[in-house]
């Protein structure tokens, strides 16, 4: 099978490797679509995310739409030909977070495209059947690949505790930010401001439910949000930069909740402590998703969430390097580049 491996920052190589054999409880998946996420870009650009360092050639990719090619021993609820979205994290089930219902916080999780676990930028992968969700009729594989970022958006809104009517700001209108936008609207948020430097993203944000979408200079956009809103009740940082974290704290209202969704580089978060303290802010950090995949599938099926519009670029596996560079450079109006296998 064809496989794309990251050998060093910026060094992707296409190779041929054996097709894996599914074990008990696993299915062999024929990968059809893989979304390029910001975490993939971090590994591609820097070779690490915090203390997770690429030390051996690694297959990236964890946003997956796939087709079951073979069912392993003991699998009864999936069969060859079934089309699925894939939960990319296999938690241990035994640690304290897992036993308390927080598998996304499992310290022993095996997660696609996170060292040393290979991801899905390849033709086939073996994965537990219990982590595969059947797709509704008519959902494309590219849309299925967007289920994972949609689940992160839904979970982020869960953590925000939106009750209804809250003034809300979202910094960053990539795939995650636009998923947060749609989930926040469904949760009953009040007026929603969105900010992103890229005009195309802001235009889509307005179509997907933002009341205001501000492009151009991020600092100026943050000031405008603060002036117009008087200080939002909830601020989501989805840009993945320390500057955006600082802006989120600066524009938040009193007793507001600031939800840090993005992954900053370098591995630190900076903000003015006195500002956060005087406003009595609550800061919440997001780790992947929890109990949100089924909702993402359901809401995409009934049209409550538009995942198709997140896919702006489609490239073959052989052009994985171009897909990652597009995402890294935020070029050509990209929101999500999807590798079609």
Provide the fold topology.
Elements: E1 2-8, E2 11-16, E3 26-35, H1 38-46, E4 48-49, E5 52-53, E6 63-71, E7 83-86, E8 89-90, H2 96-99, E9 110-111, E10 124-128, E11 132-134, H3 141-145, H4 147-160, E12 168-171, H5 175-187, E13 192-195, H6 199-207, E14 212-214, H7 218-229, E15 234-237, H8 242-251, E16 257-260, H9 273-278, E17 282-285, H10 293-301, E18 311-316, H11 320-329, E19 336-340
Parallel strand pairs: 12-13, 12-15, 13-14, 15-16, 16-17, 18-19
Antiparallel strand pairs: 1-2, 3-6, 3-10, 3-19, 4-5, 6-7, 7-11, 8-9
Fold and architecture overview:
With about 350 residues, the protein is α/β, with parallel strands linked by helices. Helix content is about 30%, strand content about 25%. It is built from 11 helices and 19 strands. The radius of gyration is 20 Å and the shape is globular. The termini are close together.
How is the main sheet built? Answer: 7 strands, mixed
The count of strands amounts to 19
Helix and strand pattern:
EEEHEEEEEHEEEHHEHEHEHEHEHEHEHE
The gyration radius over C-alpha positions equals 20 Å
**What is the share of helical residues?**
25-40%
Summed up, the helix count is: 11
> How far apart, in Å, are the first and last alpha carbons?
11 Å
> What does the average pLDDT come to?
96
- How does the overall form come out from the CA principal axes? globular
Category from helices, strands and their pairing: alpha/beta
Please report which band the strand proportion falls in: under 5%, 5-15%, 15-25%, 25-35%, 35-45% or over 45%. 25-35%
Spans where pLDDT lies below 50 across 5 or more residues: none
């Amino acid at each position: 099978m064809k496989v794309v491996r990251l050998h060093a920052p910026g060094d992707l190589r296409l190779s041929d490797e054996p097709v894996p054999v599914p074990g008990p409880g696993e299915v062999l998946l024929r990968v059809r679509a893989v979304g390029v996420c910001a975490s993939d870009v971090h590994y591609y650009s820097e070779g690490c995310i915090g203390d997770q360092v690429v030390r051996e050639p690694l297959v990236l990719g964890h946003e997956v739409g796939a087709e079951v090619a073979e069912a392993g021993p003991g699998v009864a609820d999936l069969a060859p030909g079934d089309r699925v979205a894939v939960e990319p994290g296999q938690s241990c089930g035994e640690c304290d977070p897992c036993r308390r219902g927080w598998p996304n916080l499992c310290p022993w999780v095996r997660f696609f495209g996170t060292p040393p676990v290979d991801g899905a930028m390849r033709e086939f992968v073996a994965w537990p059947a219990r982590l595969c969700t059947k797709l509704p009729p008519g959902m494309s594989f590219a849309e299925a690949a967007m289920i994972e970022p949609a689940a992160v958006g839904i979970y982020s809104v869960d953590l925000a505790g939106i009750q209804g009517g809250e003034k809300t700001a979202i910094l960053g209108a990539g795939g995650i930010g636009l998923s947060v936008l749609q989930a926040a609207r469904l949760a009953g948020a009040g007026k929603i401001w969105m900010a992103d430097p890229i005009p195309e993203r802001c235009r889509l944000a307005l179509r997907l439910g933002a009341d205001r979408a501000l492009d151009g200079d991020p600092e100026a956009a943050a000031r405008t949000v603060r002036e117009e809103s008087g200080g939002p009740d909830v601020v989501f940082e989805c840009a993945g930069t320390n500057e955006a974290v600082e802006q989120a704290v600066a524009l938040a209202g009193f007793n507001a909740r600031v939800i840090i969704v993005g992954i900053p580089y370098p591995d630190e978060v900076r903000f003015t402590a006195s500002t956060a303290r005087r406003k009595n802010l609550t800061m919440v950090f997001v780790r992947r998703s929890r109990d949100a995949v089924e909702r993402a599938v359901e809401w995409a099926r009934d049209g409550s969430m538009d995942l198709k519009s997140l896919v702006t670029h489609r490239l073959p596996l052989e052009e994985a390097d171009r897909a990652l560079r597009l995402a890294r450079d935020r070029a050509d109006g990209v929101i999500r580049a999807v590798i079609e296998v």
